[in-house]
Amino acid sequence: MNLQENWSQCLPKIKPQIDDSVVFDSFIHDLQARTYEGNSIILTTPFEFNVGIVEEYLPLMAEIYNSEHNTHYELKLLSDSQFEKEYNKKELQEEEEIPEFSDNLNPDFTFDNFVVGNSNRIAQNASLAVAMKPGTAYSPLFIYSNSGLGKTHLLNAIGNYIKKKDPKKMVLYASSEQFVNDYISSLGNGTIKEFNLRYRNIDTLLIDDIQFIASKESSSEMFFNIFNSLQNDNKQIVITSDKPPKDLKGMENRLVSRFTNGLTVSIDTPEFETSKAILQKKLEIEKVDYPISEEVLDFISSHFNRDVRELEGSLKRLLFYKLVFGQSKESIDLEFALEAFADSYKTEETKTVQNDLTVDEIKKCVATYYNLSVSQINSKSRTSNIIVARHIAMYLVRNLISDMSFIQIGKEFGGRDHSTVMKACDKVEKNMKKDAMYKKAVQEIKKKLS
């Protein structure tokens, strides 16, 4: 006897228990028992608006069904259209076995070893929210930044978190270049069906550097269709790029529109504190077993912080230099680090060194420009205009007088710590890049000094 016959046998027993015979004749009599799902029997009704009416009778009908057949099932109710959408798709997937594939995730990239600072906090928070509730928090999540600031790390961290929480979840990480090559290859060898099954039946799609796909019309069309399919099924999509969606030249408007429909976040260049924390985390991961002074970490954090790759590359260079030239040294100090980076840490501004200038002359010139006294620049005052002048004076001393260490400059400015000088110089360089009037002021002071 099949499921529907079992159900039909119970209808004569159910009818007397329903208070309103019109309800039974109109809504319950035509229910169909369609399939089993775990400990439940799925019933269907022709119209979606029937579901809300019949649901209140489900416990009573389940009790009668179980009593009649000595079973312990629950009853669930769907409209015919809901059932077709959900269960026909499941049956189709069972018939068309999804090919095995690698998730391409890098297990070393996790949230645990991602250093969070002001420059990336929003992106990290959004990524973690997505990983905790994929498909419900923000989809798509669009992360953009310059190269080397942690986009790929966050993509992999999302995937690794989801897989750790539920190993059955199907996650796929791919660069857009990999996606294009995979698509072209499937067209060439006649495996486009497998390509579609792989990309359309995953739970989370992680696409890196979407800008690569912009000018590739056929690949963009395929990605658009896959994107829509996953979105309609409430799957999670995370995309990274070197630009925000609206600045993706060559990208179809319909794709840009869908990217902006989710949450867009950015990652900025790491500030001094985040840069230093990244270095400390890297040393912990590398298990470096000899001391490296705080001065050295401050130095690298101030001079090699354009992106995370530059920070890590600088640290590798220092450790290699220690291996080759410092085997007898028990620790790395600032003097040794300056030797290691002698040919690379000076900025373009540093190339115009003037040995005839003195620290006092620079301080006096800056003070005059800002209508201050030298004693105010040397003071502990935190007034904004004094801080600006003090930072610029430190920066100019560093760049216009040769062989002045951060420690020496700190002593010249009221006995300040070397790290304070490093941060000041770093801040001036960043302000010059983003503030034209600020840059003009620095250039005018330099011109007066020359």
Question: Could you explain the architecture of this structure?
Answer:
Residues 323-450 are annotated as: Domain IV, binds dsDNA. With 450 residues, the protein is an alpha/beta fold. The chain folds into 4 domains: 3-95, GMP Synthetase, Chain A, domain 3 (2-Layer Sandwich), CATH 3.30.300; 121-266, P-loop containing nucleotide triphosphate hydrolases (Rossmann fold, 3-Layer(aba) Sandwich), CATH 3.40.50.300; 272-345, Helicase, Ruva Protein, domain 3 (Orthogonal Bundle); 351-449, DnaA protein, C-terminal DNA-binding domain (Chromosomal Replication Initiator Protein Dnaa, Chain: A). Helix content is 56%, strand content 9%. It is built from 21 helices and 8 strands. It has helices at 3-14, 21-28, 48-54, 58-69, 80-95, 121-132, 151-165, 176-189, 192-200, 217-232, 253-260, 272-286, 294-303, 308-325, 334-340, 359-369, 374-378, 384-400, 406-412, 418-434, 436-449; strands at 32-37, 40-45, 74-79, 141-144, 171-175, 204-208, 236-241, 263-266. The strands form 2 sheets. It has a 5-stranded parallel β-sheet, with helices on both faces. α10 links the parallel β6 (204-208) and β7 (236-241).
